[in-house]
Fold this sequence. Notes:
The chain contains 13 helices and nine strands. By secondary structure, the chain is of the alpha/beta class.
Amino acid sequence: MNTEELMQIALDMVGFSEIPGDSTIYVRGKDIKRVLFGVDLGVPELVMAHNLGYDCCLAHHPQGGRAFAKYFEVLWKHKPLLMNAGVPERLAEEAVSPLVETARITNQSRNLYHAPSVAERLGMPYLNIHNPLDELGRRIMDQTVRNSVDKSGTVQDVVNALMGLEEFERATTEIMIPVGRLDNGAGKVVVAHGAGTNGGYSVAKAYFDHGIGTVIYIHINPGDLKRLQEYGKGNLVITGHIASDMVGINPYLKELRKRGITVDELDRDPGLQGT
Ligand SMILES: [Fe+2]
Ligand SMILES: [Fe+2]
């Protein structure tokens, strides 16, 4: 298998026709049989993989190059998610714009070619697959909640549904409800994931202002959370970053193994050992 095929398998699993801005092949390679996967896989792990004889390194989170430079494009994916939930286009755009602008400015301070240049020097095929696997995870989480929580369901029912997924059931992290309460009615539920990162204050507020009762984020920064707590509307469910990322990553790694690739994993929750 080559690096292009590794990427294509992920794109095919979600029906994407092009590689999103936050994913890229840094160093191309072929005849790949042993892959080292890490949610975060940068310079130290590249050196380790080289020393251990792996023939490809696969990261989830962006590690440089185009995946840094074009990362902001993926944040716009919050816009159709908001519109699907009933937020008018102009307001959806206003909610997402601050995230995009922050990402574009932050990116100007970053060293885009550090890890990719190390991989190149080592001759190590190297890629990251971010949004396709987050989108896969979003669909699985969304379907899981839809399958077992009806209109009269509570936030507790939403949490129970998510706990039916092994990644949450066996995770070291816990699902948190930092805004709202477990015994509240869940109302309409949105899984706001698969768009680069969480939508912070502005995106959650737009959902709550337009009839969504429960927003699911995989993580949030404390500053944005404080503002949402002060706003005091709706229920916010935080499912835990790596456990949630693994919901989309696991089916993809399973698919690679099915095709005969050996995949060893870093960043695996000890709770999921042996699965
Ligand atoms: Fe992710
Ligand atoms: Fe992540």
